[in-house]
Specification:
3-stranded antiparallel beta sheet; mainly alpha; 167 residues; 2 domains
Amino acid sequence: MNLKSFKNRAYKKRKDLTKFMKRLQRKAPKGMDALAKKMDAEVWKDIDCLECAHCCTKMTPTYTKTDINRIAKHLGMTYQEYFDKWCETDKDNGDIVNRIQPCQFLLKNNKCSIYAVRPADCSGFPHFKKKDVLDYTHVYTENLHRCPATLKWVELMEKNVMEQKLI
């Protein structure tokens, strides 16, 4: 995967793919969740997250209190110790997020040092298998230029929806 060409393609296609996602949300065809899962399987044939790790270098997960408790326990810390060391509350929306980027748990080989106990937001990323997948169109649009898998997934969704004349 060439990350530079991915970014160029993402920026060139962003406007059209954003329009497609908005149209898809307005005219949601039947079977979208099944199609989303099918496209998810296709995406991972070509994408290896360990080559990229943009989600860990350019973004931050949203933590739940349960996430923090689980990770803190794993690290031998209290909730408050963990929060004070690594987290902050987003001023715009009140979400609990990492204080720094790249993620403090990202290793040089792009693996996660707390993979077994990582936040739910990380384990579900890029969120293609969510129930009611169309509720996440804003997330996919936002991540087109950040995540090669998201770009590929939206491109595949557009191709399949248009070929099958679902909208």
